[in-house]
């Protein structure tokens, strides 16, 4: 039945599985390819010297953002990179701190990106 509890969720999951199958067998690995491309681009922009050394951070792995390992650390790294890229694009942007309100940080990043 359409309105039976549990049935709808099962149908949605099977539709999601069918959609993933339609994209092909490599779709599950696409996020890893994107992360490797991102890392290559960051290296071309000298993120190792300009971000990692300045903030005493470890280099990103090839799959750093593709696998959820430590969401707090990954979020802070994302915000640090976003702030650096915005500054590199010629806009002043204050480097977020590790314990800043995540909603406020993301709001500031999105606001700055919208102004581009």
Automatic annotation (TrEMBL):
<dbReference type="GO" id="GO:0030992">
    <property type="term" value="C:intraciliary transport particle B"/>
</dbReference>
<dbReference type="InterPro" id="IPR019530">
    <property type="entry name" value="Intra-flagellar_transport_57"/>
</dbReference>
<dbReference type="GO" id="GO:0005815">
    <property type="term" value="C:microtubule organizing center"/>
</dbReference>
<feature type="compositionally biased region" description="Basic and acidic residues">
    <location>
        <begin position="1"/>
        <end position="16"/>
    </location>
</feature>
<dbReference type="Pfam" id="PF10498">
    <property type="entry name" value="IFT57"/>
</dbReference>
<protein>
    <recommendedName>
        <fullName>Intraflagellar transport protein 57 homolog</fullName>
    </recommendedName>
</protein>
<dbReference type="GO" id="GO:0005794">
    <property type="term" value="C:Golgi apparatus"/>
</dbReference>
<dbReference type="GO" id="GO:1905515">
    <property type="term" value="P:non-motile cilium assembly"/>
</dbReference>
<comment type="similarity">
    <text>Belongs to the IFT57 family.</text>
</comment>
<feature type="region of interest" description="Disordered">
    <location>
        <begin position="1"/>
        <end position="22"/>
    </location>
</feature>
<keyword id="KW-0969">Cilium</keyword>
<dbReference type="GO" id="GO:0042073">
    <property type="term" value="P:intraciliary transport"/>
</dbReference>
<keyword id="KW-0966">Cell projection</keyword>
<dbReference type="GO" id="GO:0005929">
    <property type="term" value="C:cilium"/>
</dbReference>
């Amino acid at each position: 039945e359409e309105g039976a509890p549990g049935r709808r969720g099962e149908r949605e999951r099977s539709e999601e599985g069918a959609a993933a199958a339609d994209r092909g067998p490599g779709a599950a690995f696409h996020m890893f390819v994107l992360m490797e491309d991102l890392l290559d681009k960051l290296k071309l922009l000298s993120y190792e010297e300009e971000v990692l050394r300045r903030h005493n951070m470890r280099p990103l792995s090839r799959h750093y953002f593709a696998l959820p390992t430590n969401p707090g650390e990954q979020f802070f790294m994302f915000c640090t990179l976003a702030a650096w890229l915005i500054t590199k694009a010629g806009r002043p942007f204050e480097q977020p701190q590790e314990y800043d309100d995540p909603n406020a940080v993301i709001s500031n990043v999105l606001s700055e990106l919208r102004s581009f």
